[in-house]
């Protein structure tokens, strides 16, 4: 078994996709055992609690200093025994302590086809607003490993989604989540966990 911690900030639909995949036996050796949010109001926490999964909140209000936040998050993850970390709609910062503790073991889901529409400022609806403003006909999602640079780590999976006439950022976001994010994140978690098992 590979113990996975999931970091969240919002509604938790990507966490829900992981939980549903786990129930269907589609996460391979990965087992979600911990959910940490940087926002205490995140509905994702309710989703975790409904599945009996241990949760924690570490917000910027509680710890405004980035380096101290990074150290505290790292301590939470290691005390819990997390072996891999999944950023599922997480809008916090993963600092050098966490990166050093989990080299090649942190996954993120980005709601665009990296290297397009990624990097600083491209998160949530901002991504889909930029896709529509550029007039793209195709967009999608990317599951990638997290490194020090924003959205620069090795890509594990991508899935394309059509942009349709009349799409609003909200409509497009929903389609990208349903048709891409919720499909490829569980597969990427399974891939990474299987690779970790093989190299144990
Ligand atoms: C969404 O914008 C999603 O595209 C991105 O994070 C945001 C919230 O996701 N990955 P979630 O519903 O909290 O998983």
What's the arrangement of secondary structure elements?
Elements: E1 2-8, H1 13-23, E2 30-37, H2 43-50, E3 54-57, H3 66-80, E4 84-87, H4 96-101, E5 106-110, H5 125-134, E6 138-145, E7 155-162, H6 169-198
Parallel strand pairs: 1-2, 1-4, 2-3, 4-5
Antiparallel strand pairs: 5-6, 6-7
Helix pairs in contact: 1-6, 5-6
The chain binds 5-O-phosphono-beta-D-ribofuranosylamine.
Describe this structure in words.
The protein is of the alpha/beta class and 200 residues long. Helices cover 40% and strands 22% of the residues. It contains six helices and seven strands. It has helices spanning 13-23, 43-50, 66-80, 96-101, 125-134, 169-198, and strands at residues 2-8, 30-37, 54-57, 84-87, 106-110, 138-145, 155-162. It has a seven-stranded mixed sheet, with helices on both faces. Helix 4 (96-101) links the parallel strand 4 and strand 5 (106-110). Helix 1 crosses helix 6 and helix 5 (125-134) packs across helix 6.
Q: Quick recap of the structure?
A:
The chain has 6 helices and 7 strands, in the order E-H-E-H-E-H-E-H-E-H-E-E-H.
Number of helices: 6
The overall pLDDT average reads 97
Amount of helix: 40-55%
How many DSSP-defined strands?
A: 7
| Content-based structural category | alpha/beta
Element pattern in H and E: EHEHEHEHEHEEH
- End-to-end Cα distance, whole Å, is 11 Å
Name the poorly predicted regions: none
Silhouette: globular
Main sheet: which strands, in order across? Answer: 3-2-1-4-5-6-7
Q: Beta-sheet strand percentage?
A: 15-25%
Distinct small molecules bound, one entry per kind: 5-O-phosphono-beta-D-ribofuranosylamine
């Amino acid at each position: 078994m590979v113990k996975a911690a999931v970091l969240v900030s919002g509604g938790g639909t990507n966490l829900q996709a992981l939980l549903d995949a786990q129930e269907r036996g589609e996460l391979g050796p990965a087992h979600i055992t911990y959910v940490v949010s940087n926002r205490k109001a995140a509905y994702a926490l309710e989703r975790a609690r409904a599945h009996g999964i241990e949760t924690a909140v570490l917000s910027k209000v509680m710890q405004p200093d980035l380096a101290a936040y990074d150290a505290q998050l790292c301590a939470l993850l290691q005390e819990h025994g997390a072996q891999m970390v999944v950023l599922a709609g997480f809008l916090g910062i993963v600092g050098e302590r966490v990166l050093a503790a989990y080299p090649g073991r942190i996954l993120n889901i980005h709601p665009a086809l990296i290297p397009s529409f990624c990097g600083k400022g491209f998160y949530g609806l901002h991504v889909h607003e930029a896709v529509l403003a550029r007039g793209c006909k195709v967009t999608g999602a990317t599951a990638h490993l997290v490194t020090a640079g924003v959205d620069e780590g090795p890509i594990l999976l991508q899935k394309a989604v059509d942009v349709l006439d009349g799409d609003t950022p909200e409509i497009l976001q929903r389609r990208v989540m349903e048709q891409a994010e919720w499909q490829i994140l569980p597969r990427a978690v399974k891939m990474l966990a299987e690779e970790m098992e093989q190299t144990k």
